[in-house]
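Key idea: predict the complex, not the pieces.
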Amino acid sequence: MNFNGTNFDTYLKDYPDEKGYFGPYGGIYVSPELKAAMEEIADAYYTICKSRKFIAELRRIRKEFQGRPTPISHLERLSASLGNVQLYAKREDLNHTGAHKLNHCMGEALLAKYMGKKKVIAETGAGQHGVALATAAAYFGLECDIYMGQVDIEKQAPNVARMKILGANVIPVTEGLATLKEAVDAAFAAYAADYRNCIYCIGSVVGPHPFPLMVRDFQAVVGIEAREQFVEMTGELPDAVVACVGGGSNSMGMFAGFLNDPVKIYGVEPLGRGPALGDHAASLTYGTEGVMHGFNSIMLKDEKGGPAPVYSVASGLDYPSSGPEHAFLRDLGRVQYDVIGDEETIDAFFTLSRMEGIIPAIESAHAVAYAMKLAKEMGRGSILINLSGRGDKDMDYVLSHYGLR
Ligand SMILES: *Cc1c(COP(=O)(O)O)cnc(C)c1O
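Result:
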């Protein structure tokens, strides 16, 4: 399919280019030493990802350990309440550990094993990426160091407990505001000091090349499965696909399955409390081009050009940028990015729970809220939502801050 001059028949092979660029976005913007480490990972990945042994092992793990393929559920009661559009959900909440993040963590940890690394390193904010990586490390018998801001450690006690039970070292970071940004810096520094023995595992389609490529490839299983399942269930493709966008991994995985199809694709960003800087994390909607955390993309900047403070009710979405591929797909017009705020998200959280018996992660509830709006606009047709995770982690927060609805 040709779309605005770009050939999508070969898109996934053509992008990123060998330097890690999606058009102007992506690349490797790190110190020379870390750049050498990134190039080593890229070289290893380009070779290993084609190995039949690696592919077979990843397939077996997905089936026997993760519980893939995850199903698609037809949201019949929700659809009927909205009119004639049929809504469907790809159930990444049923993936082991309850979200899509394990898809790329298992891939990254398997790559670490093939590269002969002993340890995986990462930062975590709310702890979701840390738990997924600690799970993967336990499975492969790798050491696991997770850097986490002291403030987040105190807020996210259950995830800290999970990581520790899984055998990970949770390393408190006390510098600065002691949250995600400082944890990223500390994890990068630890990795630079010991990159021969370990591998840095990024939690989304962000960071320097090859991470946006690798994480997309590992998450693409979601879109590939979903396309096949949807056609089998309904005999046709969905009219629209919807996913929430933080760093952009669950959405990129889902979109990868449909880029070359006559399907409308929507990425949903968090509008939080509203459009003023600091009240949201809708980087593709309100941001400008810049470099952050080792890559060039669209981002929300403060007055000095650094990453701006961001906010969303969903801690998994409050990142001041998104992956370079999303910036590229936005510019091409292939994916339409739009926003949903906290209030509509909380309504959708309760609606999906009450009408379908599925408690979604607050992140995923952004996609549900958008799909509900879109269904009313479309009048007829079908929408496939990527339900990126389950909401058990959010129940206490929602009840104490919003009450029952
Ligand atoms: C982390 C997380 C997200 C956001 O990350 P992406 O990289 O944008 O997918 C979305 N949903 C859930 C359930 C998450 O845990």
